Amino acid sequence: MCRYKHIERSIGEYIAGRYHRAVEVGIGNNPEAARLLKAAGILMLCTDIRPGIRHDGLTVVTDDVFEPDLRLYAGADLIYAVRPGVEMVPPLIALAGRVNSDLLVYHLGCEIYGDGGEVVDCGPVLLHRYRRRRP
Fold it and tell me: Which homologous superfamily is 2-76+88-113 in?
């Protein structure tokens, strides 16, 4: 398990160097990237569809990306997800469009959605930017 933590660390470091207000969707039981962003003062909150998820020091809110509460994401310049199911990507793209934020996704294995978006090389990890924020 320790082997995977470098992925979340790389994602967190990449985001921390480029964004100011981020929301993680689908945090589940993997808070490493969110913790790094919280320490950098960038993380607004995390969401997950399952109620009752808690991580010390992080704000985790129950929300369904298929029917999101837009108020949770207002003001974010980035929405990101680490290993979401591919079926979550279209509603994530729509959500990012509705709140005018970038969308970064780290996929599980070789799973991608559509054309894979813009590939972002952040060291040992490839992210997919499916949407860019409008200026």
Answer: Vaccinia Virus protein VP39 (3.40.50.150)
